[in-house]
Amino acid sequence: MFVSGATTALPNPEERRNRTSGSNFQTARPACQRTAAASVRARPRFRSGAADWRRGEHAVGAANPGRPPPLFSPPPSLRRSEPRRWQLAVSRARREEAEAADAGAQAMASPGLPQPPAEGSPWPLRLLHAPPELLRLDPTGGALLLLSLAALLGWSWLWRHRARGIPPGPTPWPVVGNFGFVLLPPFLRRKSWLHRRARAAGMEPSALGPQLLLADLARVYGNVFSFFIGHYLVVVLSDFHSVREALVQQAEIFSDRPRVPLVSLVTKEKGIVFAHYGPVWRQQRKFSHSTLRHFGLGKLSLEPKIIEEFKYVKEEMQKHGENPFDPFPIVNNAVSNIICSLCFGQRFDYTNSEFKKMLNLMSRALEICLNTQLLLVNICSWLYYLPFGPFKELRQIEKDITTFLKKIIKDHRESLDVENPQDFIDMYLLHVEEERKNNSNSSFNEDYLFYIIGDLFIAGTDTTTNSLLWCLLYMSLNPDIQEKVQEEIERVIGADRVPSLTDKARMPYTEATIMEVQRLTVVVPLAIPHMTSEKTVLQGYTIPKGTVVLPNLWSVHRDPAIWEKPDDFYPNRFLDDQGQLIKKETFIPFGIGKRVCMGEQLAKMELFLMFVSLMQSFTFALPEDSKKPLLTGRYGLTLAPHPFSIIISKR
Ligand code: HEM
């Protein structure tokens, strides 16, 4: 309505220009510009207002100084023969150009052209009549327009989700969700809630583990709350009831794993830990679990391997005499060797450089995946292939680990004794053969075996190593409790006999101490992220399909409604009045439900036998001049203690 009314009332553009400027510049205008003006004049009357605006801009754009070729250029011969006249001609041409541009601008603003619609008219109409500068998609304007549109869409999407009854949570930013502050310059970032929280605790933001921040947010929004990472909805479960309802009572819906691009690129979504919930995961996990059990997981037959490994630990520790040392490499080597014995049927000497290199590469890969620009691969997958920095480093690490593991698998295939399989790899290779004969669609193959071994290392090394290190640290900080543990060992096992799993039942205080360390430190504090495979309702909230779910095991273990004085180190909370061990269902360091830790029995065996052997042989203390280490831990999928040194005295 507006468009047609405005166009029919249009006076001739020529007239318009003269009327507004009141000058005779039209006569002084060079021929080419006159042509442009003529084209404006010749414009058919039935054109829409927006098209008129564009045409006007196009015609004037030709006279815009600086962009198109100059309207008039004096012949070069003039420059040589009469330099003064040449200069005058040039400056006249420049003046005319400027005037022409001016005239164009005035013509644009002339009252005869279609005017922008009134304030209250609908926005699509106003957009139609917007000045061409706004509509033109030059690189900056276009990008800004697209970005604003994306922001608007993202924001409305997020809010539509909030409105649909999803759990409460902090207000997300458009597009980036709740972690937009990482994109801010440092001086603004300091005002974010994360930095304010870190300042209140007297720490650097990086020192605050995500489990602490999420526990803080649960205090504000409740035990089931949500936030957004980009447009991904993440729901955090912070108390035992919601964790049990999701992972046990609605296990079929809450047992998938999210598709994280970096993880998918590295694991090819194979193996067990990050595999999708479904028949392939079920077959592979069932086979792996029963094979590990066959080789002694949770049984006495594995005991000698763990005890043998402890002999090397003892030797290595004694080498330091009474000097402080970092216990990490010794404990890490020992724990990895137990997995090696199960998977490869062999242990590696602590001085074996290839083995050491592999262990370093595995921790380095985890570290760079969580703390470097590699995280950007989750936004833009192709960055993974960049030929520099952490991108290149990760690909190289992958290549080295692949070569190491594939060689071991190849050696096993060549020396496989069908009648007498020696380890996990042998059993798997036999199963591959069997499946090949009976099931053409089988998921069992050598490629899959490679990823499962990687999983057993990643899931089984850092977790147990860190649990043992935390035990040593808590014993050093609580000498009275260390003494009580040693008294119990003395009473039940004595000084010389090697510990056995059969002693466990008679050592409730020692077991309660290990459990209390696990309760306070929770080495896998946020479990491994889960994902819903369909829409559901949890604790009255709607949880859409594809929601990432983080069970905050750390919060569950510090819940004051369950644990009295939850921040205190108090092993007796796991003992009844007669000093017998109480099993508490709210103690869940290995997670619960279908995705519960596959190595729980192995980890419990290792922890008990290693801890008891260490306490039997040594007393641990921190060096006198050392500062008390922070007990918040360093987060990197697992929660490790900050590096510390220790002194041993032989018992
Ligand atoms: C103290 C030591 C350990 C702790 C605290 C621990 C804890 C956990 C936790 C919390 C999960 C995630 C559960 C979930 O997603 O809800 C997990 C998964 C897993 N753990 Fe452990 N773990 C330990 C040792 C081990 C060991 C020694 C192995 C190897 C044999 C192992 C193998 C696995 C595997 C394969 C999974 C993935 C299970 C799946 O996705 O189906 N863990 N562990």
From TrEMBL:
Cell compartments where the protein resides: Endoplasmic reticulum membrane; Microsome membrane; Mitochondrion inner membrane
Gene3D superfamilies from the UniProt entry: Cytochrome P450 (1.10.630.10)
| Residue span of region Disordered | 1-119
Polar residues composition bias: residue spans:
1-10
A Pfam family (short name) is p450
Query: What's a single GO BP term from this record?
Result: xenobiotic metabolic process
Question: What residue spans carry the Pro residues bias annotation?
Answer: 66-77
Per the record, membrane topology reads: Multi-pass membrane protein
Catalysed reaction, written as an equation: an omega-methyl-long-chain fatty acid + reduced [NADPH--hemoprotein reductase] + O2 = an omega-hydroxy-long-chain fatty acid + oxidized [NADPH--hemoprotein reductase] + H2O + H(+); (5Z,8Z,11Z,14Z)-eicosatetraenoate + reduced [NADPH--hemoprotein reductase] + O2 = 20-hydroxy-(5Z,8Z,11Z,14Z)-eicosatetraenoate + oxidized [NADPH--hemoprotein reductase] + H2O + H(+); (5Z,8Z,11Z,14Z)-eicosatetraenoate + reduced [NADPH--hemoprotein reductase] + O2 = 19-hydroxy-(5Z,8Z,11Z,14Z)-eicosatetraenoate + oxidized [NADPH--hemoprotein reductase] + H2O + H(+); N-[(5Z,8Z,11Z,14Z)-eicosatetraenoyl]-serotonin + reduced [NADPH--hemoprotein reductase] + O2 = 2-oxo-N-[(5Z,8Z,11Z,14Z)-eicosatetraenoyl]-serotonin + oxidized [NADPH--hemoprotein reductase] + H2O + H(+)
Q: Which cofactor does it need?
A: heme
Q: Which SUPFAM superfamilies does the protein's record reference?
A: Cytochrome P450
Ligand binding (heme): C597
Q: Could you cite one Gene Ontology molecular function of this protein? A: iron ion binding
Which UniProt keywords are present, listed alphabetically?
Endoplasmic reticulum, Heme, Iron, Lipid metabolism, Membrane, Metal-binding, Microsome, Mitochondrion, Mitochondrion inner membrane, Monooxygenase, Oxidoreductase, Transmembrane, Transmembrane helix
EC class? oxidoreductase
Give the Enzyme Commission number.
Answer: 1.14.14.-
Chief location category: endoplasmic reticulum
The Swiss-Prot or TrEMBL record describes its family as follows:
Belongs to the cytochrome P450 family.
Q: What is this protein called?
A: Cytochrome P450
